[in-house]
# Entry
Amino acid sequence: MQGSPAPAQSNNGYRGNDRAARATAQSLGASWDADAQGWWIEADAAAEKFSRWLGAVTEPHEVRAETYDVVSHEACVVTARVSCAQCGADIEVLCIHCFGGTVAEEPLQQFTVSDIREMDEALLRQVALWPYFRKVPDGGFVNYCTRCGEPQEDMQLHSEPQQPFFDVPAAIAAGRGICTPLLGTIRLNGDEHFLV
# Structure
């Protein structure tokens, strides 16, 4: 059956056990797929009727207002240990490393992103696993010391040869960096760094 997942696949409330919601979904044109154990709507169905379960519906011709300069479907979070610039504590810091992607629509390989100003929702959810990496009020995202709470200078971590994010592939190969793959395509705004 061609179509889109409908209510049972959504995170917006319907789980298949609410009889009234089931009846409503069926009356609107959703169909039960016993093999997939989920509700489906036909591709040509008026998706806005199902917005209760699917969230806001945007038309294919609508363009999102947000634009991101950095886009990658081959990216990871790289974590490393450094000394806090303020108190000297041994802390974990992270960076976003892209094995491939685009920056301002130009293809680029093996680069990190520093001074991150914005991230899409999907990336925000993934980096939430590292609570010490968060947004500065009225600013970008930075690593914070878990002992003294001071933000760490992002540019320093990326631009100095002795720092962990200067050459991420070498740091990973030497065991000084741990790579955790990011799921899906990531979108963000920041400054790219790469070795020349």
